[in-house]
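Q: Okay, next protein. This is Glutathione S-transferase from Dyella lutea. I've checked the sequence twice, so it should be correct. Can you predict the 3D structure?
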Amino acid sequence: MITVHHLENSRSQRILWLLEELGLPYEIKRYARDRTTMLAPPELRAVHPLGKSPVIADDELVVAESGAIVEYLADRYGDGRLLAAPATPERRRQTYWLHYAEGSAMPPLLLKLVFQRVGRAPAPFFARPIVRDVAAKAQRGFVDPQIATHLDYMEGELGKAAWFAGEAFSVADIQLSFPLEAAAARGGLTDARWPRLSAFLDRIHAMPAYRRAIERGGDYRLG
């Protein structure tokens, strides 16, 4: 039995979605974020030294990192579903997007979250305007333009085919769901400027397996 160590409002939601798409039985071990820091609880360190989520246990094998988990599950259990055959153009694009989602798309979105929290964090009265000004300038001058650049890029790529890696829905789309949902929640993703990305989110949110994953995983908010 596969166990998903599932942190609320986190990347592990897309692992539940993949498991639902593959029709695999699994159990969920839930973890709540610290309500002050919003960090994962220390109990996750007993599962993996970094104390991060997602992590899955498949019998004695423990796998961490979203991209590695997605590739492992699709490769071992997919039976040709959601993951293209090796050495094909579709597989190369899927591999690219699996790495791009966390390696390129997520860093500016994480910086956005950090600077938003810095701008709202308690500070001495005399320092508060300075802290907020620095946080706002960092967002306007660097973070927001970087997010827009990535959204423009993904918008263009999604215009080449029905899904990110080609005409078939794949692991690439599952992996990219998290940065795009984060962008919709806090990165300025709007229908008017990025209509294909907005339509992509509408499509995946209507998919039965996605909805089952939300029901099993619980409330999912990235704002």
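A: Here is a summary of the prediction. The longest helix spans residues 89-120. The CA atoms of residues 94 and 148 lie 22 Å apart.
Q: Noted. On to the next one.
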